Amino acid sequence: MALTSSPRAAAVGDAAHPEAPPFPPSLALIFALLQPEPVPPSWPWSEVEPEDFIRAVRHHGVGTLFPESALERLPAPLAQPLGILRKRLTLQAMVRVGALREILVACESLGLPLFVLKGPALSQQLHGSPLVRPCRDLDLLVHAPHANAAREALRTLEFLPHGVYHGDPGGNHDLFRRERDGVFVELHWRPVRRDGGGALEQLLWSNAVTLNPGGLAVALPAPALEAAAPLLAFHGARHLWTRLVWLRDWDRLLRLAGVDWERTVENARSLRLERYLGLAAVLCRDHLATPLPPALTDPYSRLLAPGEGAAPLVRQVWRGPVFTDREVLHRVGRMRCLVWELGLRADWRGRRDALASWMDPSAADREAFPQLPWSWLPAARLWRFLRP
Fold first, then answer.
1. How far apart are CA 284 and CA 294, in angstroms?
2. Distance, CA of 122 to CA of 256 (rounded, Å)
3. Which one-letter DSSP state was computed for residue 174?
4. Are 353 and 387 in contact (CB under 8 A)?
5. Who's near 214: CB < 8 A, 6+ residues apart?
6. Range scoring the smallest mean pLDDT among 3-17, 161-175, 332-346
7. CA angle 273, 338, 317 (to 5 degrees)
8. 3-class DSSP assignment, residue 178
9. Are strands 114-117 and 138-142 parallel, antiparallel or unpaired?
10. In the beta sheet, which residues pair with residue 142?
């Protein structure tokens, strides 16, 4: 399938599926601004309500990810509030990076190895600066035996447990917040709730890289992009790609020179996540005009077919109002999302793991969907024994 040549067609009319209904005006403009080509002068600016546009930009986390050249043609009613938002996001990023430096120094002094997942580390890898990519919190990964020591290190820095899900025995992270600067930290001892045999965790730790951002004065440990890419694709799909910042990550990743895509696909295949890579590639190709590397199109072209089959559900989510993940599941349907995810799993083991995840609810699941008859899911107990 040929890449889209028209930014407006890609943004508004869904280039790969011209029969599909258009996106909302604010979302269509966001897609156009994320394109490498400038927004055409004929753009229907009058259709975009400034408040809706800023709300959508804030929700999708892309305020600082637009190319400077893309903003030159914005009319003042859109450009002024966007400029204010971009400055605020940059200041917030500086606060988070400062807090991250404190955490890294504290953990290094205690001899606690950790990874920075996404956030400032991914921003440095994709954009050359830890301040470009917005994030809502700092995601840290430690070995499970070091989790208690890491919790204590956070407490010494005034980070306190936050939220009703803190300490969920079925979860994979704890949430902390520091009152004086409002910084949130997610402390992970597993990268995902279901990590069959710890394969993803082992892949991340065995592909460590050390980043040295200018001005941070401390090394930034992170997984190599070839190891992080399957996790990024899986994370985006698990949240139904409801925030375009995750798609922008993939767009930058696909355009970045030096990424070993054959190795990336092999890593995804070892985790049974290769179809998630295909979905991310299809969405970038169809909506951001992203060129795909040969490793995703020639020998592994079969990865794109499941992605093309799964993409319509994501487009349906995008065409709706701005929702939180939980509201999206209510609107789209939890069972439909389960069937959708089962189709993205590459084999019976992957489908079993997905089914186990949906049938073994966490405290967050029960809180988000209290109307579901959890009491008639005793099979969840059986899945606890069957899952690896």
1. 15
2. 13
3. E
4. yes
5. none
6. 3-17
7. 90
8. strand
9. antiparallel
10. 114
pLDDT digits (tens, 9 = 90+) for 74-96: 999 999 999 999 999 999 999 99
**Both tokens assigned to 213:** 């951002």
Q: Are 35 and 289 in contact (CB under 8 A)?
A: yes
* Per-residue 3-state assignment (H helix, E strand, C coil) for 346-372: CCHHHHHHHHHHHHCCCHHHHHHCCCC
CATH placement of domain 100-223: 3.30.460.40
- The single-letter DSSP state of residue 19 is T
Collapsed DSSP state (helix, strand, coil) of residue 155: helix
Q: At what angle do helices 76-110 and 119-127 cross, to 10 degrees?
A: 110
Q: What are the residues whose beta carbons fall under 8 Å from the beta carbon of 1, sequence distance 6 or more?
A: 16, 285
CA-based nearest residue to 284, from 62, 57, 34, 117: 34
Asked if 120 and 97 touch (Cβ cutoff 8 Å), the reply is: yes
388 confidence band (pLDDT: 50, 70, 90): very low
Give residue for tokens 């939180």.
324
